[in-house]
From TrEMBL:
UniProt xrefs under PROSITE patterns: GGDEF, PAC, PAS
Signal peptide annotation: none
Pfam families: GGDEF, PAS_3
InterPro entries registered for this protein in UniProt: Biofilm_reg_signaling (IPR052155), GGDEF_dom (IPR000160), Nucleotide_cyclase (IPR029787), PAC (IPR001610), PAS (IPR000014), PAS-assoc_C (IPR000700), PAS-like_dom_sf (IPR035965), PAS_fold_3 (IPR013655)
Record's protein name: Diguanylate cyclase
Residue stretches making up the PAC domain: 96-148
Domain PAS: 22-92
Length: 302
């Protein structure tokens, strides 16, 4: 006689079971994630960090839990970080991302991409931050190498292009002019031909150091060719540019190539107002033309 199968009762998953499984998955995700994760109190103290967060920052979990993120944040990045935190606490934003630096115990610096979100309790009050970090030091290093001159450490042509765009945006925002100065070292080929490229390299470094010591906060300095340099002087009108270029000329002429042989340089500049319609390349060309006019006049006067 056929007897129908009796369905077996499905195990009932209690709320406690479901919650326990979710907690286990969360713990596994938190501790085994390939990125750094931390829970941070509203006052900045670390509440929990995973192993990857400790590995990236170079601080042990025990050490991190004794302090807060301000203690390991690079001083130059702390202000921006705290401003973003305040924006979360006031409800102005619900999350933020930034590139920042942590300082490791040995003094080395690690660059990270930081994403932070604020969790609130049932009453809507700030409870804790979830901070996620990813090590971008290699990316930053490659980007720096791509935008820097290996000999002098100055910006190269590519790096200058990026910063010139930023400068023009800042000038428009602040309604302040800036000066673009073009420098071509005089008779530099003769230095290489007569004294060798090693001496020529030394002269380029000396020029970099001499002019670098005259720059002000916000100014930019780039080497865009063999013996060609560009300087961006912030908040600098025509009269101020003339004075500063005179100081630059004196600094270059103080460099001794060899006994009885002083270095020289031809400078040309343009001042740029916030509403200047010329493109970036047109501005550089204009400064180059101004420099060439100075060089030609100097040669004609000899």
């Amino acid at each position: 006689m056929y007897e129908p199968a009796v369905p077996q009762p499905t195990p009932v998953r209690t709320l406690a079971t479901v919650r326990s499984s979710a907690e286990c998955r969360f713990e596994a995700t938190f501790h085994n994630a390939p990125i750094g994760i931390a829970h941070v109190a509203p006052n900045g103290d670390f509440l929990a960090v995973n192993d990857q967060f400790a590995k990236i920052t170079g601080h042990s979990r025990e050490a991190l839990l004794k302090h807060g993120f301000p203690q390991i944040t690079h001083p130059d990045d702390l202000g921006t970080d705290l401003d973003n935190v305040e924006a979360l606490l006031t409800g102005e934003r619900d999350r933020y991302c930034m590139a920042k630096r942590y300082v490791r115990p040995d003094g080395d610096v690690v660059w990270v991409n930081l994403t932070v979100a604020l969790m609130r309790d049932e009453e809507g009050q700030p409870d804790y931050f979830i901070s996620v970090i990813e090590d971008i030091s290699e990316v930053r290093r490659a980007r720096t190498e791509a935008t820097r001159d290996p000999l002098t450490g100055l910006l190269n042509r590519r790096g200058l292009a990026d910063r010139l765009r930023e400068t023009r945006l800042g000038a428009f925002r602040d309604e302040a002019p800036f000066a673009l100065v073009y420098l071509d070292l005089d008779r530099f080929k003769q230095v290489n031909d007569a004294l060798g490229h090693a001496r020529g390299d030394a002269c380029l470094k000396a020029a970099t150091e001499a002019l670098g010591g005259l720059l002000r906060a916000g100014d930019l300095f780039a080497r865009i060719g063999g013996d060609e340099f560009l300087l961006i002087l912030q908040d600098c009108g025509p009269d101020a540019a003339v004075q500063r270029v005179a100081h630059f000329e004196a600094a270059i002429e103080s460099i001794q190539v060899s006994p009885g042989w002083q270095m020289g340089g031809s400078f040309g500049f343009v001042t740029v107002r916030p509403d200047d319609p010329r493109s970036d390349s047109q501005l550089i060309d204009a400064a180059d033309i101004a420099m060439f006019a100075v060089k030609r006049a100097r040669c004609a006067g000899r």
